[in-house]
Design a protein that fits this description.
With about 120 residues, the chain is mainly β. The protein has no helices and eleven strands. Strands 2, 4, 5, 6, 9, 10 and 11 form a seven-stranded mixed sheet that branches. A hairpin with a 5-residue loop joins strand 5 and strand 6. The radius of gyration is 14 Å and the shape is elongated. The protein starts with a strand and ends with a strand.
């Protein structure tokens, strides 16, 4: 079994910054991509950013230039540095990892961390 533990959410004023972290642990042979998704109240979950094992990144247009995703493979950890936060960035942020383990390749999700941006 694989567990993802997120941290770093909280309340911040518009224009502020937060850094999210997500650490994977358990029966891991390798981690393919890792990413961050968010779900705003009343909306569907959307991809915010993801990063491959080789370091290639992808971002949703609304966060380009403001958010940076990174990972430390040796620690099975992914980060999301969020700057110039806006109220529309408010939501629950979920970490996802595509992990190869004893059960083959599977998607695993964290339980989410709440980010609230006040205007």
């Amino acid at each position: 079994q694989v567990q993802l533990v997120e941290s770093g959410g909280g309340l911040v004023q518009a224009g502020g910054s937060l850094r999210l972290s997500c650490a994977a642990s358990g029966s891991i042979f390798s981690i393919n991509s890792m990413g961050w998704y968010r779900q705003a109240p009343g909306k569907q979950r959307e991809l915010v950013a993801d990063i491959t094992g080789g370091g290639s990144t992808d971002y949703v247009d609304s966060v380009k230039g403001r958010f940076t995703i990174s990972r430390v493979n040796a620690k099975n950890t992914v980060y999301l540095q969020m700057s110039s936060l806006q109220p529309e960035d408010t939501g629950v942020y979920y970490c996802k990892a595509v992990v190869t383990g004893w059960s083959g390749k599977k998607d695993y999700w964290g339980t989410g961390t709440l980010v609230t941006v006040s205007s």
